[in-house]
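From the shared-data thread, chain only:
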Amino acid sequence: MTDKISALQQKIEKNPTQVFHRYSLAMAFLECEDFKSACRELEICLEHNPDWMMAALFLGKTYMELAEKEKAEENLKKALNLAKEQNHDDPAEEATQLLKECNLTE
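Structure, as tokens:
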């Protein structure tokens, strides 16, 4: 476990509803290729903030890494819809491409 992960976990212990620390922790887990832990933290982020487009996008990408296509599809579609609603073209394009890459689009 890295120092970065330990430091973020300590911050979360002090303030468990702080989603930005959780998101940072998820990114740290991704760097270490601990995909299950990253998914857990991203799911919590989305529970607290369901309109968080980047959390949905990274959750979809992480489920792709775990070969969990149904969960990947659900979160990538959510990210795509949020990106369109929030006028974020680049994340919308990325979500669309990821859906195509894992054969989740028609």
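The mean pLDDT is 94.
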